[in-house]
Amino acid sequence: MTLRITDSITIEDWELTEQFVRASGPGGQNVNKVSTAVELRFEAARSPNLPGPVKTRLRRLAGRKWTSDGALVIFVQDTRSQARNRELARERLAEMIRAALVAPKRRVKTRVSANQKRKRVEAKKKRGEVKALRKGPEV
């Protein structure tokens, strides 16, 4: 079952590894018996479907979820259902990749106009004069 991100990008099964572990939190006696939490591992660095710049942005977005061997690990234990946790993990992965697809806008350097600089200096001088007038005459 491949994971479809966009029309041009799909994640193949061999790139994803799922491991089910016991979850903490609510669930009563069930929480001690059933492994409902899912750890989804996506081999992002080795993925042929992601372009280089997208991998770089994805690595920055992932933060601590990115491992040293280039995998993205998503851990979900939100619900008591293993199937629902699995869906949530796949959705979160897809959202993270979609966010990495958007290239940030380049920042255009702007300059402060000479008039603005002049106004700032005049305001500072005026403020200084006001403060100087507060002082009493020196004896």
Automatic annotation (TrEMBL):
Residues 108-139 are annotated as: Disordered. Belongs to the prokaryotic/mitochondrial release factor family. GO terms for molecular function: peptidyl-tRNA hydrolase activity; ribosome binding; translation release factor activity. Residues 22-38 form the Prokaryotic-type class I peptide chain release factors domain. Residues 129-139 have a biased composition (Basic and acidic residues). One of its GO terms (biological process) is rescue of stalled ribosome. It comes from the Bacteria. This is Aminoacyl-tRNA hydrolase. Residues 108-128 have a biased composition (Basic residues). It holds the Pfam family RF-1. NCBIfam families: PRK09256.1 (NF006718). It comes from Thalassorhabdomicrobium marinisediminis.
